[in-house]
Amino acid sequence: MDLRGKREIRNQGRMTLQTWRFIDLGKTEPYRAQTFYEAVALAVDRGLSPSTLLVTQPASPYVCIGYHQDLEAEVDSGFCAERGLTIIRRGQGGGAAYLDDDQVFYQMAARKGAAGIPLAVKDLFARVLQVPVHVYRKLGLNAVYKPVNDVTVNGRKISGNGAGAIGSCMVLVGNIILDLDYDSMAGVLRVPDEKFRDKMAKSMRDWVTSLSREAGHVPPVQEIKALIAEGFRERLGLMFQSADPTEEEEDIWRNEILPRHRSEEWLTGTTLFRREGSERSVKIQGDVHIARVDLKKAKLIRVQAVLDNNVIQDVSISGDFFVIPESCISQLQDTLKGCPVAETDIEDRVTAFFKDRDVEMPDMTPLDFVEALLRLRDVIIQ
Question: At 312, which CATH number?
Answer without folding.
Answer: 3.30.390.50
